[in-house]
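A brief tutorial aside. Many learners find it easier to grasp structure tokens once they have seen a single protein encoded end to end. The record that follows does exactly this for Stage V sporulation protein AE. Read the sequence first, then the structure, and try to relate runs of similar tokens to stretches of the chain.
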Amino acid sequence: MDYIKAFVVGGLICALVQILMEKTKLMPGRIMVLLVVSGSVLGALGLYEPFLKWAGAGASVPLLGFGNTLFKGVKTALEEEGALGLFKGGLTAASAGISGALIFGYLASVLFKPKMKG
């Protein structure tokens, strides 16, 4: 049941973003920023954690989950290290995901030889 719930929640988030892309003139980069900031704000309001516990990977994998991870990292680092935590907390919390994206992106580019659109 957890897999189905994660699939449905992740699919709904993606469907809402697709509707946002088609019905507004917002560029994809701005929509991505909107999602990350929304996840951070929902985390700060204490609304994202219960949703995350209920939805599982369906809520943690999209960009909303990335924003929430950044918020939690900054919050923890602020409590432990003070003002310096503002600068390093989010990156420390999300470092595994960021590193994974970079490494797998590089490996994909080596294996599949991407070309520029012409």
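Self-check: Residues 2-112 form one domain. If you spotted this yourself, you are ready for the next section.
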